[in-house]
Amino acid sequence: MAGPTGRGTSLGAALNDLLRSQVTPRHRLSSYSAKHWHAQLSQLTATHRGQQALADAGLNVTTKTLINWLSDAEYNIRRTYRDLIHTAYENVAIVPRRTAPRPHHRRPVRDQRRCQNRR
Predict the structure, then answer these.
(1) Considering just the CA atoms, what is the radius of gyration of the chain in Å?
(2) pLDDT single digits (tens) 45-82
(3) What is this structure's pTM?
(4) Are 58 and 84 in contact (CB under 8 A)?
């Protein structure tokens, strides 16, 4: 038995349409491409937005602990801390897509020479 394909008039297509209409379009900021927890933590602690994301994700460690982690990329931290760092990183890296502003329609500026010839 085949599952929903997500094409045509199938249940999968209906679900895809529903999701597209309900989900805010998002995109990943190009400056957030770090893979290792140490690089992610370093980038997060460099900005106020990143520090807030760490706090929102639930990372509650002392300043001394953060300094120890940042001073050694091979420092062995718990998996739960790595997961919190990754969650905070993804929350900062993926943002709602801004729609392009609508252009202001203005009347075209008349050519000065044409206006002078009419006088």
Answers:
(1) 25
(2) 999 999 999 999 999 999 999 999 999 999 999 999 99
(3) 0.62
(4) yes
